[in-house]
Amino acid sequence: MEKMAPILSIENELFRIYIFYACVLALKVLIMSPLTAMHRFKNKAFANPEDVVTLKVKPKIHEDVERVRRAHLNDLENIVMFFVASFGYILTNPSVGFATMLFRIFTASRIIHTLVYAVYVIPQPARALACATGYAVTVYMAIQAILHFI
């Protein structure tokens, strides 16, 4: 009989998959800051007094900048919770195939959410569907972990 690798080991396929998608999502969150900065410079929309003085522009708010900032905040609200819930979920030793599918769905939903919200604005319900899909995955994994560890 083949010995199974510990759950939190690089020999464990599901743990490696979790780390891969966690890193993809971490990069996705990190990309949002330069995207915000790009929109700030493009639209000369700076809110901080020191930026306004240095760049010799008037302080202003621009909808494109605010849209990217809101998408970034939404990532922080959802992706961090995914990290916690999905980590708990992998500790339940789920099916590798099913867990991988959940990780992929969540990751795709967050990328789509940003695309339809902050890059190529598409009317609702596109953003709501993308957000709700990822949210449902996170809730499912959190509930499964809770039930497992009761």
CATH-wise, what's the superfamily? Answer: Membrane associated eicosanoid/glutathione metabolism-like domain
Estimate nothing, just give the exact number of structural domains.
Answer: 1
* CA radius of gyration: 19 Å
Q: H/E order of the elements? A: HHHHH
What is the averaged pLDDT score? 92
Please provide the count of β strands.
0
Low-confidence stretches: none
Quote the beta fraction. under 5%
**Might you state the CATH topology name?**
Four Helix Bundle (Hemerythrin (Met), subunit A)
Indicate the CATH architecture. Up-down Bundle
- The helix/strand class is mainly alpha
| Total number of helices | 5
The proportion of residues forming helix, as a percent range, comes to: over 70%
From the N-terminal CA to the C-terminal CA, the straight-line distance is: 30 Å
* Main CATH class: Mainly Alpha
Explain what this protein looks like in three dimensions.
Keywords: Acetylation, Endoplasmic reticulum, Membrane, Mitochondrion, Mitochondrion outer membrane, Transferase, Transmembrane, Transmembrane helix. It is found in: Endoplasmic reticulum membrane; Mitochondrion outer membrane. GO terms for molecular function: glutathione transferase activity. This is Microsomal glutathione S-transferase 1. The protein is an all-alpha fold. It has a single domain, classed as Four Helix Bundle (Hemerythrin (Met), subunit A), CATH 1.20.120. The chain contains 5 helices and no strands. It has helices spanning 13-43, 49-55, 63-90, 96-119, 126-149. The longest helix has 31 residues, at 13-43. The protein is elongated. The two termini are 30 Å apart. The model has no long low-confidence stretch (mean pLDDT 92).
